[in-house]
């Protein structure tokens, strides 16, 4: 079986365990030929799968929920939650002081169009009692986002922390005083990045979902034990990348988002407040466009 895998970004430390899984033969051991497709944002992976660009991917859970609410169909399953602590945040140059959410209400922000954190920001503000329509948002390409943050031309950028921090470094910007206002620390803790797959593909082969889950969990725990496996997998595909930056990015997300408390089963807790927040984010974004009730959606979509 050949499966195209849509990544959340270019070949980088943040997605390197998936690359390691292919290099280690984990897909091959189950009779799967895995072809990677570089991406732009985890929030775009749902669209890529539904458009026929790929069958599996490293995508955003709330985007999967949103699609199901808009269409009334559950076409994608979330198989493995990658992040234990969501990287959704606002990145900013601190100049020695913390950014407060109250300042964001009327600030000027930027970020790539379709950015996950940008989609969730209005709900974060609403939950904290702030207006959701008073800030100014500049939709820009990642290169311009990095320039605007580096030059302090905006208050902050919507982002995933590791994406902004290491993109700025790779583009030669000073990121030494970069800091982050995390959504999870301000009352909106959600499931974000996850390994996802088209249901139409999973249904073709009994047990495929379990095989894919086993591959992904093994690969991430491998790289927790030995990050050099992930670094080597990236450099093999992008030899011009700086191994030190790849290593630093992988270590950053392992310590802060994926395994902040050490090894874990990497399963969804359907009854958790985090799952309820994730579903609320999707329902808030879809609003009156929803063609079905959110009730029962996590159980239909998140497999353990």
Write the layout of secondary structure elements.
Blueprint: E1 2-6, H1 16-23, H2 26-29, E2 33-37, H3 45-50, E3 56-60, H4 61-71, E4 76-81, E5 88-93, H5 101-104, E6 108-111, H6 116-127, E7 136-139, H7 142-150, E8 156-160, H8 161-170, E9 178-182, E10 193-198, H9 199-202, H10 208-225, H11 228-237, H12 243-258, H13 273-286, H14 297-301
Parallel strand pairs: 1-2, 1-3, 6-7, 6-8
Antiparallel strand pairs: 3-10, 4-10, 5-8, 5-9
Q: Can you tag this structure with a few keywords?
A:
single chain, 304 residues, D-Maltodextrin-Binding Protein, domain 2, 2 domains, 5-stranded mixed beta sheet, 14 helices, 10 strands
User: The CATH topology of the largest domain, please?
Assistant: D-Maltodextrin-Binding Protein, domain 2
Backbone shape? globular
**Helix fraction by DSSP (H/I, runs of at least 4):** 40-55%
Low-confidence stretches: none
Strand order of the largest sheet: 2-1-3-10-4
CATH class of the largest domain: Alpha Beta
Number of helical segments with 4 or more residues: 14
Task: Output the CATH homologous superfamily of the largest domain.
Answer: Periplasmic binding protein-like II
What would you call the structural class? Answer: alpha/beta
How many discrete structural domains?
A: 2
The largest β sheet comes out as: 5 strands, mixed
Number of strands: 10
The ordered string of helix (H) and strand (E) elements is EHHEHEHEEHEHEHEHEEHHHHHH
- Provide the gyration radius in Å: 19 Å
């Amino acid at each position: 079986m050949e499966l195209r895998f849509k990544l959340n970004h270019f070949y980088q430390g943040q997605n390197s365990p998936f690359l390691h899984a292919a290099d280690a033969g984990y897909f091959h051991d189950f009779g799967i030929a895995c072809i990677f497709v570089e991406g732009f944002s985890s929030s775009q992976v749902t669209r890529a799968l539904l458009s026929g660009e790929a069958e599996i991917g490293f995508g955003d859970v709330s985007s999967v929920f949103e699609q199901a609410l808009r269409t009334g169909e559950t076409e994608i399953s979330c198989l493995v939650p990658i992040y234990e602590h969501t990287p959704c945040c606002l990145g900013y140059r601190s100049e020695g002081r913390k950014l407060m959410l109250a300042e964001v209400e009327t600030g000027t922000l930027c970020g790539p169009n379709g950015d996950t954190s940008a989609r969730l920001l209005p709900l974060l503000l609403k939950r904290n009692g702030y207006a959701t329509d008073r800030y100014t948002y500049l939709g820009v390409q990642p290169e311009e986002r990095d320039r605007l943050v580096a030059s302090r031309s905006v208050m902050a950028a919507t982002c995933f922390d590791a994406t902004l921090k290491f993109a700025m470094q790779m583009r030669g910007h000073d990121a030494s005083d970069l800091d982050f206002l995390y959504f999870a620390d301000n009352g909106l803790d959600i499931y974000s990045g996850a390994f996802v797959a088209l249901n139409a593909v999973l249904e073709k082969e009994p047990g495929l979902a379990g095989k894919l889950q086993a591959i992904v969990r093994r690969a991430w725990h491998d790289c927790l034990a030995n990050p050099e496996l992930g670094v080597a997998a990236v450099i093999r595909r992008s030899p011009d990348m700086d191994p030190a930056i790849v290593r630093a990015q992988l270590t950053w997300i392992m310590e802060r988002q994926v395994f902040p408390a050490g090894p874990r089963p990497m399963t969804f807790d359907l009854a958790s407040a985090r799952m309820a927040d994730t579903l609320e984010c999707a329902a808030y974004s879809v609003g009156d466009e929803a063609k079905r009730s959110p009730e029962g959606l996590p159980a239909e979509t998140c497999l353990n």
